Amino acid sequence: MWRRKKVILIALLAGVVLFASTAGIVLAQTGDEDSSQPKTLMARVADILGIGQPELENAFTQARSEMGTATLDSYLQNLIDQGKITEEEAKQYQEWWQAKPNMAPFQQQLREWQQARPDITLPGPQGGSGDYGFHGGLRGGGGFRGW
Question: Is this prediction's pTM over 0.85?
Answer without folding.
Answer: no
